[in-house]
Amino acid sequence: MDLVLPELPFPLRAYGPDADWSYERGVLNGWAGARQDRFVPPTGDALDPASDAPRLLGAPEGDFQLLARVKAGFGAAFDAGVLYVHVAEREWAKLCLELSPDRPTVCTVVTRGHSDDANSFVVDGDSVWLRVSRTGGAFAFHASTDGEKWTFVRIFSLGTTEQASAALVGFMAQSPVGEGCVVSFDRIEYRPAWPQGLRDGS
C-alpha cells in the first residue's frame, strides 16, 4: 500500500519489516523493532544477507533535494532516524541522526558491497534537519541544526548514472542493538533542484 504525502510529488512504499508508518498533520512517524538495521560490516562477507530495517521509499525524477527534521526516541546505542537512498541490493546509503554511541550524532553510511561508516558532528538534543540531494549519478548529504544553514557532510556516487537516476529515496528507522526506536520526520520538503552550493551553507 502506497502512502502519499502532500509535500512529495511521488508516492512512498514500505520496504523491510513493518514499521507501522503513519502520517498526520505534517508529521511522519515510524518504528524500528529490536535489532533492526541495514549494514554490511566491512570486516564481513558481502555475500551474507544484510540485516534489514523498515524503510518508506519513493522514486523522485531528475535533480532533487529531500529534507526533513528528524527526531529519534533514543533508547540504545546506534538507534537512529534516517534519510535513505537505495540504488541496488548492495548499493545504498544512509544519512542518520544516531546515538553514536552515547551522544546524538550526524552519521553516514555508504554501501558498495560492504558498508563504510563515518561520524560528522554531535547534535545537542534529539532532533536535526537532514537533506539528501541528487544530480545525475551524484548524491550529497547535508545536515542543519536550524533548517536554514546547512553543513556539508559528503558527496558520493552509487551504481551507474542510469541506476542512480532511478534511485529510491525516503525514510528509515533503525535500532541495531536496542529493543526498538520510534522516529518522526516533520518539516518535510521537496525541491526539484541540486543545491546551488555544497559548502556555502545554502
UniProtKB/TrEMBL annotation:
<dbReference type="InterPro" id="IPR009784">
    <property type="entry name" value="DUF1349"/>
</dbReference>
<dbReference type="Pfam" id="PF07081">
    <property type="entry name" value="DUF1349"/>
</dbReference>
<dbReference type="InterPro" id="IPR013320">
    <property type="entry name" value="ConA-like_dom_sf"/>
</dbReference>
<protein>
    <recommendedName>
        <fullName>Regulation of enolase 1</fullName>
    </recommendedName>
</protein>
